[in-house]
């Protein structure tokens, strides 16, 4: 059981071992925001407020090892021993502070204090007053001018990565990895595309703009990357002009588009050369930002 899973078990245990799924997400959100200096989980604004996809991946693992029951709610398995798994003081403080709130009242508390996480909520307009709804509206990213972004997921959680897209009002994510597989949770094609779409962000994969993995070996210093990307410009990009044009058309249609690959630093990723090639097109007159 890893540290995140221990946090889930510890919090659930402090609240009596059984919670509705929406309430548990709210308590987990408040716990990470207020009782942890380095939060074990990050959250995105989703249908009922802040939501952690990672927590559900961990929940599936906890079901597998017999710690949780396989139900929609969060429920400790009968007989599962939690003694000695964690220090309980922070969990207990969270319980004392928030256990009197549940359901709509708990949701209202979170929405008032953290309006950004309510921007995609299906409940906000029904349970919040006009002033509070206006605060949520004001927290919604408003940028609409056409802009092209590049983003890497190295060193980022899935939720942290998605928040960068949301806060920049990205409408479509274009994956330029040749093979969109990752051992890191959330970043293989199936999960990434499905999760992005749940948040209103389109997903397109253009493998022709990727670099084969066997060409990415033995990259140690920046000069190694530069040689690879120089070759990439001369070979793959020139041979795949149609794919580059397709990317340009996606951008013209959706206005705020991000291309993605692994590396955090754009100088160590071929997506920088893709952006450079786009900017060289005759009709290009748009901003490019690396986020």
For the structure shown, list the relevant keywords:
12 helices; 5-stranded parallel sheet; Protein-Tyrosine Phosphatase, Chain A; globular; 46% helix; alpha/beta; 9 strands; 291 residues; single chain
Short description:
This is DUF488 domain-containing protein. The protein is α/β, with parallel strands linked by helices and 291 residues long.
Q: What secondary-structure arrangement, pairings included, does this model have?
A:
Elements: H1 3-14, E1 18-19, H2 21-34, E2 44-46, E3 49-51, H3 53-64, E4 74-75, H4 89-98, H5 103-113, H6 124-127, H7 130-139, E5 147-152, H8 158-167, E6 172-175, H9 189-198, E7 202-205, H10 222-239, H11 241-254, E8 256-261, H12 271-279, E9 287-290
Parallel strand pairs: 5-8, 5-9, 6-7, 6-8
Antiparallel strand pairs: 1-4, 2-3
